[in-house]
Amino acid sequence: MLYGRLDGMREQAARRLAEELHATGGTLQARSQRDSSVQMYAEQVEQFSAVENGLCFGRLDTDDDVRHYIGRIGIFDTSGDYDPLLMDWRAPAARAFYLATAANPQGVRRRRHLRTRQRKVTALNDEVLDLSAASPTAHEELTGEASLLAALTAGRTGRMRDIVETIQVEQDRIIRADLPGTLVVQGGPGTGKTAVALHRAAYLLYTHRSVLSSRGVLLVGPNETFLRYISQVLPALAETGVLLRTPGDLFPGVGARRSEPAEAAAIKGRAGMVQVLAEAVRDRQWVPGEPLEIEVEREVLRLDPETVRAARDRARRTGRPHNLTRAVFDVEVVHALADQVAERIGTDPLGGENLLDEADVAEIRRELREEPEVRAALDQLWPVLTPQRLLADLYADPARIAAAAPGLTDAERALLHREPGGWTPADVPLLDEAAELLGEDDRTAAARRQRIRAFQREYAEGVLEIARGSRSIDVEDEAEGGEILGVTDLLDADRLLERQEESDGLTTAQRAAADRGWAFGHVIVDEAQELSPMAWRLLMRRCPSRSMTIVGDVAQTGALAGTPSWADALEPYVAQRWRLEELTVSYRTPAEIMAVAAEVLTKIDPHLRPPRSVRESGVPPWDRRVAEDRLAAELTGAAVAEAAELADGRLGVIVPAGRVDELGTALVAALPEAAVGEHPELESRVVMLTVGQAKGLEFDSVLVVDPERIVAESPRGHSDLYVALTRATQRLGILRIN
Ligand SMILES: Nc1ncnc2c1ncn2[C@@H]1O[C@H](COP(=O)(O)OP(=O)(O)OP(=O)(O)O)[C@@H](O)[C@H]1O
Known about the structure:
Elements: H1 2-22, H2 28-50, E1 56-62, E2 67-71, E3 75-76, E4 84-88, H3 96-99, E5 108-117, E6 120-128, H4 145-153, H5 169-175, E7 182-187, H6 193-207, H7 209-215, E8 217-220, H8 224-230, H9 233-236, E9 242-245, H10 262-269, H11 273-283, E10 292-296, E11 299-303, H12 305-317, H13 322-346, H14 358-370, H15 372-381, H16 387-396, H17 398-404, H18 410-416, H19 427-438, H20 442-474, H21 481-490, H22 493-502, H23 508-514, E12 522-525, H24 533-542, E13 548-552, H25 566-574, E14 578-583, E15 585-586, H26 591-604, E16 612-613, E17 622-626, H27 631-645, E18 651-654, H28 660-670, E19 686-689, H29 691-694, E20 699-705, H30 707-712, H31 717-725, E21 728-737
Parallel strand pairs: 2-4, 7-13, 7-14, 8-9, 8-12, 12-13, 15-16, 17-21, 18-19, 18-20, 20-21
Antiparallel strand pairs: 1-2, 1-5, 3-4, 5-6, 10-11
The protein binds adenosine-5'-triphosphate.
C-alpha cells in the first residue's frame, strides 16, 4: 500500500514537472514562480525515487494499541483525514523507535524492525519492551540488537549505507541536538561519527526547513574519495540539498588537486600565515627607490618616492582591503602629478599667482587619469590583485617570500617557494585569507557570474534528466506518457537555461557553491581533526552564526597542521561556548581487531582508550613477516586468498604512500579487478589505498602492508597506522618486512 502511494506521489510530481516545463510566457513574476515550481517538482521526483529501498523499516505498537509505521519519509492518507500512514523517522513521535528500551519503554509495547529487499519483506525482528519478557542475553544498551548486528555484519558495497533503521541512543541524542551553537562529536574509529553527521544533516533540514533551505547546509569531508563513499547516504534519506565539499574545494573557482610535501602544507596551515599574507599584500604597495618618470604628451612628469609614500600611507590609513583602497591611492598620486602639470603650464610669466583656476586643475586630473602611462605607473605601484595572483607571485619569488615571512627559517621559506601551476588543498585557506585582505574587484564578480552560469547549465541539464528518467518509471503505458515524452523533445538544455537565467533558478546549494561570501545556516565538518588553523578560519567565515557540528577523533590526526585538541582549535572562535558529545561504542571494528589497534593507540598517547567494540568477529587477525624482496608476491598471494574468502564484500589493501606504485602494479597483475590510483573505484571488490585515502572508509577485510613504513612516513605515523588498522568490519591481516 505504501509503495502504491509512493508511486502515485512520484507520478503526480513528474506530471506537474512536465506541465511547468511546457508552460511559456506570462509576466516575469509568473515565470519566476514557474521556475521555483520546476525546482520543487524536480526535487520531489528525485526524492521519491531515492527512498525506494527500505521505504518502511519499522513499526511501533504502543501501550494504548496504536500502531505507527516508521519510514524514510512521511506519507499521509490524502483520501481521508490526512492520517499518517508512514511516519518520517525524524518526526518527534518517531523518536521512541530509537529510544525505547525494556527499562524505559516510553509507552511502547513492541518495536518491530522490518527488512525488505526491493518491495518484499524479507525478515522482521520483534522486541517486546517488557522487563519481564526481555530476553536475558539481550545487550542492555543496544536498541534493535538483532537488526543492528545484521547491519554490521552484512557485506560492504564500497558505498556507505544509512543507519536510519538502527540508530542507537547515544547517536540519536547527537542527531537531534539543537540547531544553534557549536557541537563537537569526539569518538574513536567506527563509532558512527560520519553516520551521525549525515543523519544530523537530514534531521536538521527536516526540523528547521525554513531557516536552512534558504541558507543551506555545508558538509565538509577530508577528500574526494571519502565524499564519493558517503554520497548516497543523504539522497537515501530524501535530502539532496546539502553541499558536500572537501576543504580543497571551498574557494569557488579553484579545484585544489596539486600535491606538495606534508611539511609545506603544515607551514601553510599555521595561524602565522595571516601575518605573512598581510605582509605580502603590503609588499605589493610599492614605493620606488628612485623617482619614477612618466611621459605624458611628450612632457616628463616625476613621481618621487616621498609622494608615493605619502599616498600609500594615506591609503593604508583607510583600513580597507587593498583593492578597494586603490581609488584613494590614485587620487593622491594624480593630485600630485596634476600639480606638476599645473605648475608648468599655469605659471604666470609676470610672477603672479598661478593662472589656472580650480576647474582647470580638475580637468587636468581627469585627463591624467586617462593617460596610459599614468595608469601603468599606478598599476605598478598599487596593482589590483586577485588572490590567485598574489599567492602565485609570492610563491614564485624567494625575495617576496623573504619580505613577507621574516619569521620563518630559510628551510621553511624554501618549502613555500614553487612555480605557478595549480593549487594544493593547503593553498585554499590562504586564497580565502588573501581574498579578505584584497577585497573583491570587478574580475572576481565576473568570475562569480561565470560560475553561476555553469551551475545553471548543469541544473538545466539535471532537470531534463529527471524529467526523462521519471518518464520510464512512472508512466510506462499510460495515456499521459505522450505528454511527458514531449518535454525533453520540445525543450533542450539551452532553452531551459535561457529561462533559468531570467530568475537565477539555482538551488541554495548551487548559489552557495558559487559565492565565497555565502553564510551557511549550518556547517558540518567530518574528520575535523585534520583541519589546520588556517582552514578553521575559512570555515568560520562561512558560518558566522557558529551553528556547527564538528565531528572527529583527535587520536586519528594525520595532517601535521591538524588539531591535537578541540579546545585549541575552537578557542579563537567560540571560546568555551561549545558542547562536547562523545561516542564510546565502535560498531565497525570487532574486539579482536580493536585489541591490535589499541597497542598502537597507547603509542600515540598512553592515556587514550579505544572505543568498546560492540561485537566479536570470531576471526583472529594475522600478522606475518616477509623478506623485502618477497613482499609483492606475498601481498598478492594474501590478497587473492582474502578476496576468495569474501562472499560479496570488499577487500581494502592499505599500503605506505611510497609503495603504491610498486605494489599496485603487482596487485593488478594478479587481480585485474583491483582498483588502484588517485581516485580508485570503491565499488571494486579489491581496492588499494594509502592511509590518507582510506580515512573514514571501511572494508570487510583489510590487509595492512609494511606498518613500520606507514609509521616512518610521517611524524604522525602512529595515528596513520591506527587509522589503517581500524578499517575492517571482519578480518585483518598484517604483512611486515623482516
Ligand atoms: N547505529 C548503527 N546502526 C548500524 N550501523 C552503524 C550504526 N552506527 C554505526 N554504524 C556503522 O558502523 C560503521 C562505522 O561508522 P562511521 O564510518 O560513521 O564511523 P566513524 O566514527 O566515522 O569512523 P572513523 O573515525 O573511522 O571515520 C559504518 O558502517 C556504519 O554504518
